[in-house]
Amino acid sequence: MDFFVQEIMGVTHAEIGGVLAGEWKFANNYVNTIIYHHKPQDAARYKRLVSLVHIADVITRQLEFGSGGDSTVPEVEEAALDQLSMQARGLEMLVEAVKEELEGADSFLAALSS
């Protein structure tokens, strides 16, 4: 989807989201995070929050939770890991923990619907 938006409109969904968030008077930390969540190394401010959202975005894409509008699974930027003092092993552990939580939530919701 982002490829389509960028090809047709010349901007990314992050840029569009940032403009909308600014127009809607979101706090600056949220606007900045929306704009830079795919490129945390480019964020001048709120680097920890941007890095956290970037990593969460990549993990949800890896685990196919929700939809980003396309099948692209981005890589975690090294700058985001550095910003959070996280090593590759810590990221692997986080992915496993998130996967277990999502599976537990799925089981809980399945039980509620039966």
Short description:
The protein is mainly alpha-helical and 114 residues long. It contains six helices and no strands.
Distance between the termini: 35 Å
Number of domains: 1
* Poorly predicted regions: none
Oligomer: single chain
Q: Which class do the helix and strand fractions yield?
A: mainly alpha
Amount of beta strand: under 5%
What string gives the helices and strands in order?
A: HHHHHH
Shape: globular
Give the radius of gyration.
16 Å
DSSP summary, beta strand count: 0
Discrete helix count: 6
Task: Determine the mean pLDDT.
Answer: 90
Which percent bin holds the helix content?
55-70%
Biggest sheet details: none
What would your notes on this structure say?
- By secondary structure, the protein is an all-alpha fold.
- It has one domain.
- It is 67% helix and 0% strand.
- The chain contains six helices and no strands.
SSE diagram, text form:
Blueprint (H helix, E strand, L loop, with lengths): L1 H8 L3 H11 L4 H9 L10 H16 L15 H6 L4 H26 L1
Which features would summarize this protein structure in a list?
0% strand, globular
